[in-house]
Amino acid sequence: MDPVQVNLGGVPETLLWNLYQRATEARQDHPVLRDPKAVALVEAIDYPFAARFGSGELGQWQALRAATFDREVRRFLGTHPDGTVVALGEGLETQFWRVDNGRVHWLTVDLPETVEVRTRLLGTATGRQSVAAVSALDPAWMDQVDPRRGVLVTAQGLLMYLQPAEVHGLVADLAQRFPGAELVLDGVPPWFSQRTQAGQMRTKQGYVTPPMPWALDAAERRRLLAIPGVDEVRDLVPPRGRGPLHGWVAPVVNRSARVRALGLTGLPILRLRFAAA
Fold first, then answer.
1. How buried is residue 40: exposed, middle or buried, by Cβ count under 10 Å (0-12/13-18/19+)?
2. Which of 52, 80, 104, 155 could form a disulfide with 185 if both were Cys (CB 3.0 to 4.6 A apart)?
3. Are 51 and 205 in contact (CB under 8 A)?
4. Can you cite a GO biological process for this protein (predicted)?
5. How many CA atoms lie within 13 A of 97 on its CB side?
6. Quick one: 190 exposed, middle or buried, by C-beta within 10 A (0-12, 13-18, 19+)?
């Protein structure tokens, strides 16, 4: 098969960065995340990954983030095997193939240009998979969700690119439309957000991280908990990784409530639970 050309810029281009990092880790002898589909995608895409993003030195970090989301999806499916997982801003994430239990219903929600790329590379969604080619902020996608079997919404690598008011509005809408459901999301600490908005986060190859206006610290956790319908906001700790940094330092840092309160952790991931009707 001829390589597939992908031309994306701005925030949509970050889906290629995420994919490349996961695939780089998946190629390791003892990866923290097995993701053969990500490796196959990178090999199928005509894109200068290394020239644009470097050697994939953040691969393990990205894979541990994905593994944390996988763990939450599996936990949800353990009690709701026929439930619906809604993946907001899914990009070229291959989570469905890593966690599929043969019964889950999966809805991908993403921008039309991203859905077009995903469809070309991963095929047309059929059966238990469906797609909504709209912004995560467009409530139209919610009409495609059947809440009777349970709902888990994921927002991996998405919300940090939104304005704080947009994030709060989305959470409020989810709490109202899907009582009893859960939302798993990640963010960035304030210092990282500030650097991206100043254009200071760039690779040696010249790739500049898009601005990330929304950040997570103790104050933002309190604001999320204050949104009507949000019953609980819980920090999630990524699994232990490989090597001194991800195997020893990061686990200690990520488990420190004090560090999380100061917004210093590099991998803030939360689970929000919505009040039942």
1. middle
2. 155
3. yes
4. methylation
5. 15
6. middle
CA nearest 18: which of 109, 98, 95?
Answer: 95
Cα-based distances in Å from 165 to 170, 200, 272: 9, 24, 17
13 and 53 Cβ atoms separated by less than 8 Å: no
Domains and CATH numbers, the chain: 60-274 (3.40.50.150)
Letter for the amino acid at 88? L
pLDDT along the chain (277 residues), means of 10: 82 93 95 96 94 87 95 98 98 97 97 94 87 97 96 98 98 98 96 92 84 95 98 92 61 60 69 96
Burial class of residue 79 (count of CB atoms within 10 Å of its CB; 0-12, 13-18, 19+): exposed
